[in-house]
Design brief:
The chain is globular, with a radius of gyration of 20 Å. A seven-stranded mixed sheet has the order 3-2-1-4-5-6-7, sandwiched between helices. The protein folds into two domains: 156 residues, Rossmann fold; 132 residues, Rossmann fold (3-Layer(aba) Sandwich). It is an alpha/beta fold. Helix 1 packs across helix 8.
């Protein structure tokens, strides 16, 4: 049997899907912004799953320290097997050294989790090794769950007019095919180039969308600039839908909602300030992967 620890309904839902116990973590932040997470019921089981997710507006630094403190606390109290559910893999975008002198941040984060006592990590559509089931950049198992499976399941029940799934660049090919396969339609890719210094994006079309329902998919919306450029390239479409796994910034949520017929995101990041957002549940997929690799026995 296992216990799932969490701060909100996200962890509780994972526990329900697993048939596992659930215990709440109490979040406390001191006046100087230091975090002090308190486990309200220390588990008796040898296997504990820490299910912690970010919330908008993001504070990845505080989130990472909070997660490390929870894991280390459990390890110091003798918990033998500690799994971490990190739906959005913080620092995962820095999955290599792009410029001389930069850190290999994604690997360092995983090594910190390992050294704190984590045995496995479960994440969703990580930017690091994003088309693979395992994020193989550190010597700790990191299971990369495909969030586009959940998005595809949600979208396949809709009535589209000549649907076409489009990704913003060649790196999104796997994502696009997952969603297109679920809907049963064609797919295509735009071309994107990003300046590593300024972050500016140049996007090219070359895809015929006139009269069709276009479903734009991506793993991450940060500033929203890439998706807005993609929407602009779909001016001749009948309708434009947007489906994204991770909403890491709320800067342009309203604008994206206004320019699309529907804007859906997986609930890997909590966005309580936007109740009108369509939030696609990812908990069942996470629980399925945990059960597959951890042999969790429900009560």
């Amino acid at each position: 049997m296992a216990t799932v620890l969490g701060f909100d309904g996200f962890g509780e839902h994972i526990a329900q899907h697993l048939g596992a116990r659930y215990a709440r973590i109490e979040r406390r932040v001191f006046p100087d912004s230091e975090v002090c997470p308190r486990i309200t019921h220390m588990p008796d089981e040898a296997h504990v799953i820490v299910a912690n997710r970010l919330a908008l507006p993001l504070n990845p630094n505080s989130y990472l320290v909070e997660t490390l403190l929870i894991v280390k606390n459990l390890a110091d109290r003798g918990i033998e097997h500690i799994d971490v559910v990190m739906p959005y893999f913080v620092y995962g975008r820095q999955d290599k050294v792009f410029r001389e002198g930069e850190p290999f941040s994604a690997r360092y984060v995983l090594e910190m989790l390992r050294d704190a006592g984590a045995e496995r990590v479960f994440t969703v559509s990580s930017h690091a090794n994003r088309n693979q089931d395992i994020v193989g950049i550190a010597d700790i198992p990191v299971h990369n769950i495909n969030g586009f499976v959940a998005l595809g399941s949600y979208l396949k029940g809709k009535q589209f007019r000549e649907p076409l799934v489009i990704g913003p660049d060649k790196g999104a090919e796997g994502f696009v095919k997952t969603v297109a396969s679920a809907i049963g339609c064609d797919s295509a890719l735009f071309e994107k180039e990003r300046d590593l210094v300024t972050g500016d994006v140049i996007m090219k079309g070359g895809v015929t969308v006139k009269g069709r329902d276009v479903i734009l998919v991506d793993d991450i919306i940060g500033s929203g600039g890439t998706m807005l450029k993609a929407i602009d390239l779909c001016r001749d479409a009948h309708s434009v839908y947007c489906a994204v796994v991770h909403l890491v910034s709320d800067k342009r949520v309203r604008e994206l909602q206004e320019k699309t017929k529907e804007f859906a995101v997986a609930n890997t990041i909590d966005s309580p300030r936007y109740p009108s957002l369509i939030k696609v549940s990812i908990e069942a997929l996470i629980a399925e992967k945990i059960r597959e690799v951890s042999n969790v026995q429900g009560h």
